[in-house]
Amino acid sequence: MKQKDEKTIEKDENPYDVKMYAKGDKAYENLSEYKEAIACVALLKNCAKKKDLREGTSLHVDVVKRGFLQKNPYVGSALIHMYVKCGCLDRAQQVLDELFLRDVVSWSTLISGYAQQGQGEEALNCFERMQNEGLSPDSITFVCILKACGSIGAINKGKQIHKEIVDKGLLGKDAVLGTALVNMYAKCGELEKAAEVFKELPCRNVVSWNALISGYIEQGQSKDALGCFEQMENNCFSPNAVTFTCILKACGSIGDVEKGKVIHDKIVNKGLLDKHIMLGNALVDMYAKCGMLEKAQQVHDELPVRNVVSWNALIAGYIHHGEGENALSCFERMQKDGLLPDVITFSCILKACGILKAVNKGEQIHDEILSKALLKKDIVLGNGLVDMYAKCGNISKAHEVLNGLCVRDVVSWSSLIAGYAEQGRCKDALDCFEQMQNDGFSPNAVTLTCILKACGSTGAIDKGRQIHNEIATNGLLGKHLVLDNALVDMYAKCGQIEKALEIFVALPVRDIVSWNALITGYVQQGQDVEALNCFTQMQHDNIFPDVITYINMLKACGSTMEINMGRELHSEIISKSLLKKDISLGTALVDMYAKCGELTKANQVFDELPFRNIVSWNALISGYAQHGQGERALHCFEQMQHDLCSPDAITFLGVLKACGSKGAVDKGIQIHDEILNKGLLKNDVDLGNALIDMYAKCGELEKAQNVFDELPVRDVVSWNTLISGYGQEGEGEKALFYFEKMQHDGLSPDAVTLLCVLSACSHSGMVEEGRKCFVDIPKKHGFMPDIQHETCMVDLFSRVGLFDKAMEVIKKMASIDYPLWCCVLDACQRWGNVKLGRLAFEEAVKLDCNNAAAYFSMASIYAAAGLQEEAEKIEAMRMKNIVCNTELFLCCTTTNNVWES
């Protein structure tokens, strides 16, 4: 056995040891033997400090040989302490069980070990055994057992311990014990009780305050933590490094960067940064969580010492704000500084790879993790790998990693399910969900959220309802906002907008995600007015819009032509500097202005975008094509290709429309070749339909027919487009032939088909065929004609001079619009029908007195009939209306200018 010099032995003596020697019961034979035992205790303490298990085990053998364990429980306690510090709690328990003499110190040492290792249940078992042996706990025991209660949330046991402490009158004598009580109640979520105990403490110190502040933060009540901190300073308690660390965490969690800056200044003024690396790390973390990443980087770079925690705080900050590139850059710098990454670093970097879809870097990190054999020790890393591969789109690899994990939990499965949901593979997501449950794992809120997302993306409403019932049965409704929002989103995406609204209204709390789910649902279902009303109500409820809200609102404005509101949203977006961060928002602005016909403004916004992608170009090209500016659309297309941006199917749809509108068949043929080279026609029926439409509009019906015949799949739009093409060229018989063939091939005509057929009959003068279709289709296919079909019939009869028939249709119509009377006027002009022309004119100007077309038609009818004076009167009426409307316009403009000034 190693010997210590005499001075060391004397230094380690204490009254407790002398008392044991003097008792004589199982006493040492002489003072020398006693001092050897004390020296052994000192050596055991040293092993505990160095965590030297090998030397400690050797000492254990020597202690047993010399019989010290039977003579002095202090030696036993030191041995237990050594094993506890070396992490061998089983050995420590064994030593305690074998002790001939067990005292409160021995028990307290083991209880403390279990509490420190987070094994609260074992600590409580020890405490009960100790009391069963008739030993009365002291203050240290109570402190340890209170820590154990806090770690496992054993509030009832904690309250029982509290009562024992009060009964023994210990609270007034020990500040540490009072602090332990505050800490226990705080960790168990009983913050009111923690505050109550704190107020009753006869003496408080900075540790007591820290316990309460820390409790508020752990329970997510950071504002209360800040209030507690202010109260502490008002009571003249000087915060220490632990206090400041807690308060910085509170500032980060609620984004209170101004308060964080104040704390930063106090730390600097006290000169604490050089002494406590944890403070520097907490500052980096606070600035990062508040979104001040440049400041976080600056603080990090100025730290006198950096460790892996410092780097992790900065890397995690970049990840939290989606800046994967900067996170990877930090990781590389950290390795250059010679610091080895830990589990947290690897977890963060895997998230960065997922954000960037950097699967190659992810595989490299995977290899490092395997080489360090970390997967066997940490499930978090396994889950991170599953999540990374899933986010990178390599879902089969994600599944392979999950299958290879030694241990899986609900997070592992949720990551995989989320990956399948992201890729729209609802069936695979649901299969995983079922397998997870078969393996005995109960889904949590995240799992259910992912499954609901899968149901929403694929329209699996029945499965969505089943999950909804499961959530309600398990009492989860209203408890997890993310889950409630997922339900709103699922029903909205499945077209069940009323059900989505019902759940939304019942939510106890709503955030921006809740509103976005409902608004997005309205926009996707074409209920844009309701979306705009939602937006107004959301702002009334003091919920501020984010990028997703603005994108949806711009879509709604484009669909409803609400250009003024669109401009207001544009101003808000600029004031918040959002265009620099999100290209999808710039694209939505271009699209909104284009749909509203403000093509110059759309082009201006497009030119000012910090960067453009295919979606931006498509929005502008489609805008020009939709508003008949084919030349500009084609120019944009050429410019896009010049910028090396490769067109996609949506681009080609816009360009084909432009070719059709200006009859640019040569350009259309060129686009057709590009589409064939890319093999797009195999998968996209819309492109095939656009090609048929382009050739038909250019009068190339043979080419249109060839495209139609070669389509791998045809839908009702394909047939409608071909029928319309033949009708426009006056080939009514062919139009009717394909109409019959369409039905023979098993496709039912829709309202557009009937419109195309009636238009074809009208252009070809096929009155009887058109009348028969008008009467028969609703009976055969179950839909009633609308005003457009009725207008077509009026046109059909009027074109051939059957005005009585046309008026019969008009008299039966539920509502009549301006275009119908113009249609009648055109026919009256062709046939010289003055009487009906006058009636049609009078009805037309009642509906729209500003449109010049009706005046020109009526004047022409009078002039052709030799009624020149009447024709001049009509012209005078037209001029008078123009003057009146101009004066009204000028009046309104002046009024507006007055208000503006």
Description:
This protein is mostly helical. Among the domains are: 510-611; 714-815, Serine Threonine Protein Phosphatase 5, Tetratricopeptide repeat (Alpha Horseshoe); 820-901, Alpha Horseshoe (Serine Threonine Protein Phosphatase 5, Tetratricopeptide repeat). The protein is elongated. Mean pLDDT is 87; it is low at 1-26 and 886-901.
How large is the radius of gyration?
40 Å
Which spans of ≥5 residues are poorly predicted at pLDDT below 50? Answer: 1-26, 886-901
Mean pLDDT: 87
Overall spatial form: elongated
Strand content: under 5%
Helix/strand layout:
Layout: H1 6-12, H2 15-23, H3 31-50, H4 53-66, H5 68-71, H6 73-85, H7 89-98, H8 104-116, H9 120-132, H10 139-152, H11 155-167, H12 175-187, H13 191-200, H14 206-218, H15 222-234, H16 241-254, H17 257-269, H18 277-289, H19 293-302, H20 308-320, H21 324-336, H22 343-356, H23 359-371, H24 379-391, H25 395-404, H26 410-422, H27 426-438, H28 445-458, H29 461-473, H30 481-493, H31 497-506, H32 512-524, H33 528-540, H34 547-560, H35 563-575, H36 583-595, H37 599-608, H38 614-626, H39 630-642, H40 649-662, H41 665-677, H42 685-697, H43 701-710, H44 716-728, H45 732-744, H46 751-764, H47 767-781, H48 787-799, H49 803-812, H50 818-831, H51 834-847, H52 852-864, H53 868-900
Helix pairs in contact: 1-3, 3-4, 3-6, 4-6, 6-7, 6-8, 7-8, 8-9, 8-10, 9-10, 10-11, 10-12, 12-13, 12-14, 13-14, 14-15, 14-16, 15-16, 16-17, 16-18, 17-18, 18-19, 18-20, 19-20, 20-21, 20-22, 21-22, 22-23, 22-24, 23-24, 24-25, 24-26, 25-26, 26-27, 26-28, 27-28, 28-29, 28-30, 30-31, 30-32, ...
